[in-house]
Amino acid sequence: MKSSHLNPTFSELSNISFRTDFEGGGPALTVKLVWDWRFARVYDENGDVVDECIWVGNRTPDTLANRLALLMRGRMTLEAQTLADRFPDCIACPSIEVSSWPELDTDESVLLQDASVKLAERGVSESASDPDYRLEHLVQATEEMRSAHNTLESRVVEWAGIFLPSLDIDQHRSRIASAISNSTSLQEIGESLDTIPAEAQIGPKEWSAIHSLAASTVKLATDMDRMEESVRELSEIHLPSLSLLLGPLLAAKLCSTAHGRARLARLPASTIQVLGAEKSFFMHLRQGTPSPKHGHIFQHSWVCRSPKWTRGAIARMLAAKAAIAIRVDHFGGKPWTSKQVSDIEKKVGEIRARKSKR
Amino acid sequence: MHVRARGDSVKSFSDRVEIRGRSLWSRNAVKGVSLRGERLKRDGRKEWRQWNPRASKLGAALLKASQSGLLPEHGSTCLYLGSGHGTTISHLHDHVCGSKNHLNGTIVSVDISSRCMRDMIRLTKTRPGIIPVLADCRQVQEITPFLSRRVPWLFQDVSQSGQVEMFIEACNRFLEENGTGLLSLKSASERDTQSAFVHAETALLEAGFTLVEKIDLAGWEEQHVLFHVVK
């Protein structure tokens, strides 16, 4: 057995690709090149070791983690490359197939463990840089805040309505919470909303309760705006074309419903069309109810502001364009400009015109 | 001295895992620490940790199996695909590695989710012997660097479509001759829910495995079957 201790430089680490044809028949060339993170070996047809090259670098969890990352991508170690250069005709073979391959000793298995933890930690922290995860949290949080805001606001409105009997609640709905939070007494609310409050007596404790509920409703609304700003910002970076076509909020919502940009980019347009309408879609499949014509995409003004009988066709066309836009975003195409969007708007007009003639 | 309640039948899988009465216990490798609020029980110098069959399909299978050979040997190398948050892994560690890994076992636990991997990494801090791998189980090349030879025991629980093919591929690549392969199959993960189990069984037999037992986990996990095969 010949051992060679090399001190390789990094320039030698060229992109030699991994040969995977070890299972193919081929000629009776049975010189096998086998490697793992510790060393590489060349075996002849009798299973004897012909040559060996050992990793002599500094063995720390970090350096081993780098090595393992390299191997996970199917690449060769430096030692394997050195031997591959020495034996150009050898066939790569996974170490797991060689029964005489030495087991790890205690030090080595401890090192492998530490390195694998390092590598996994790296992977976990890399996932923080994935905008998909962040976008998903932003979108979900916005949704939750919106539903919380709606619940609280309607409570404030109904509660305050008792004390403001002559006020048209529905008309002033959006102003009531802020009016209460900006006032210090029932009288003051009456003035700011231009109405006469009821005679009922309201104690200071009850007043402070209703006041703080109104204040938190108002705060929730501003928080929600801030959240939406953030969604817009991230969405315009992560999904530029789709944001331009559908608006950043709707684009972000589609992306989070599809569980990430990579998955959204692989969905067919017909699925994008009904994304967000899962309930009626599966009702359609199971019970044969009419199929949904639009999911989240309904929120786009081209769909929801169109006459009812044209919406299906517009949603279908828009979903098809959205599918193209998201693929442009995901697979690194040239981001769309307003030109493409205005072309699509023209098509929307055509569909509306065509459908109205009938 | 610990006095056992009368009529408490004991079935031992090894000196580290046993069924007492109706509940399953593993010998806690990290004394005093209960991972997800499992009950701990002292028995002289030993401490036992309850293995919840609702949180672990392997645990449920141990309670329902009629054939032996579900668990690996002490100190062996195990490959666990789809480790999740590490509940089962912790009990497997109790069995294979023991306290401070004095049994010299290795558990290579693979999962694709970075959220789950966080919990796994935390687990490895107190339980040496576990190798966490953040990788896609379908990509065999991502797992190979962590194994120096074929493993005698392989468990797969991934709940994805095409999991039977994944299992067969993984066994062909990683499992040694006469090794134990366990496949936890969730029928709802497959397109065709009705015949998923029948298809899986034929596919496993066609791939040349010997089916030791088909364990229906009903009662603990609905619509789950654990296939116990030997290569």
Of all chain pairs, the largest interface belongs to:
A-B, 29 and 27 residues
CATH topology name of the largest domain in chain B: Rossmann fold
Helix count of chain B equals 5
Structural class of chain B: alpha/beta
Biggest β-sheet strands, sense, barrel of chain A: 5 strands, mixed
Task: Tell me the helix content of chain B.
Answer: 10-25%
Number of folding domains of chain B? 2
**Total number of helical segments of chain A?**
15
| CATH homologous superfamily descriptor of the largest domain in chain B | Vaccinia Virus protein VP39
Distance between the termini of chain A: 87 Å
- H-E string of chain A: EEEEHHEHHHHHHHHHHHHH
Oligomer: heterodimer
What is the name of the CATH class of the largest domain in chain A? Alpha Beta
Strand order, sheet with most strands of chain B = 8-7-6-9-10-12-11
Explain how this protein is built.
The complex is a heterodimer of chains A (358) and B (231). Chain A has 358 residues and is mainly alpha-helical. Chain A has three domains: 3-127, Nucleotidyltransferase, domain 5 (2-Layer Sandwich), CATH 3.30.420; 131-234, Orthogonal Bundle (Helix Hairpins), CATH 1.10.287.4070; 240-357, Serum Albumin, Chain A, Domain 1. Helix content of chain A is 60%, strand content 6%. Chain A is built from 15 helices and five strands. Chain B has two domains: 10-51, Phosphorylase Kinase, domain 1, CATH 3.30.200; 57-230, 3-Layer(aba) Sandwich (Rossmann fold), CATH 3.40.50.150. Chain B is 23% helix and 30% strand. The longest helix of chain B has 13 residues, at 114-126. The chains are: A mainly alpha (358), B alpha/beta (231).
